[in-house]
Amino acid sequence: MYERGEPGHGASWAGAGMLAPYAERIDDEVLLELCRVSLALYPAFVQCVVEASGVNVELPLDGVVEAAFDVQRLDALVAFARELIARNVACKLLDRNESLLAEPALGKHILGALIIEGQGYVDNRRLGRALLAACRTRGVVVHAPVRELAIECDERRVLGVRSELGFAPASVVVNAAGAWAAQVPGVPPEARVPVTPVKGQMLALAAPAGFLRRATWVPGAYLVPRPDGRLLIGATAEDAGFDERVTAEAVHRLLDAALAAAPSLGAFTVTETWAGLRPGTPDGRPFIGPTVIDGLLCATGHYRNGILLAPVTADLIASFVETGDATPLRAFSPLRMVEGASRITHA
Ligand SMILES: Cc1cc2nc3c(=O)[nH]c(=O)nc-3n(C[C@H](O)[C@H](O)[C@H](O)COP(=O)(O)OP(=O)(O)OC[C@H]3O[C@@H](n4cnc5c(N)ncnc54)[C@H](O)[C@@H]3O)c2cc1C
Hints:
Shape: globular
Number of helices: 7
Distance between the termini: 25 Å
Oligomer: single chain
Order of helices and strands: HEHEHEHEEHEEEEEEEEHEEEH
Bound molecules: flavin-adenine dinucleotide
Helix content: 25-40%
Number of strands: 16
Structural class: alpha+beta
Strand order of the largest sheet: 3-4-2-11-12-13-10-14
């Protein structure tokens, strides 16, 4: 693995770690199914990482909450609950009192809430550290930081990677450079995937552990607890290029939304603000699988759900490398956006 910064410190560090495909309102049924499959893989994935690394990673999947503070929103939640039940997704509508019992931190002006069961969050920073340790115990060599990474290819196939450490030959190279995947030097134009950065800003408060029990959507923001008491408030979605600055306006807007829904948060200290770049794609689907250059694969473009989609992405890439069968990857193929590439077939 070659990383130009600190491993696990891109969007995967900046994210909120929510594992909540239904609360994300994904319209694309194919993508929703991929998210659903990945969510089902999560407990075994985390257990495997914990065992290999010795780092404990908690995985609270006891539901996510959507809170309503006006009648219109409450009606929308009732309609959404019907839709979820029709899909066999367990959920529960709560009246005002039940909502306050479930999440006492929410303001008394709440009208009701919806709990979607079986979803939750993972501490993505801790998972990143555990994953890195697990990889090292399994023999993965991590080169970081490298300054001048370039992929080398001939007209047909990938040859390896070059950096200040020298040339490393490889028959398979996976471009997993997130929002920067289209910028990696040496990738031929026909194998470049149109990934663009979507900036997300967040902040954290120091709240007593358990102050908020579940990841909770409120109008204009989401609130995500951490076992250590940090309470995350996110997130903006901005088309701002590769700008990773935290702005006063975004912090103001996020705090405004959070405090309108849970006024008691106003007493807590702001401990951190940060921004990250989600890897966005033109159709909202990730790019997973082979490019037109033999051996050059992509695992990027996961936009808002890259933490959730980590286990299924790993499985799909590993299985393609082992079997050469791209059939399960067809819907997410990097070739779908490359002109003329659909004529090229891969074994
Ligand atoms: C604010 C925010 C909130 C989010 N919330 C959630 C959430 O709740 N749930 C969820 O599932 N997802 C969430 N996401 C999305 C998720 O974080 C991303 O989809 C995911 O982390 C992308 O992972 P990645 O490995 O592709 O990219 P990254 O984690 O960005 O990793 C890419 C890495 O490639 C390295 N790199 C780039 N170019 C080069 C190069 N030339 N040479 C060497 N290394 C290079 C970078 O340094 C970086 O470390 C959120 C994202 C943000 C920003």
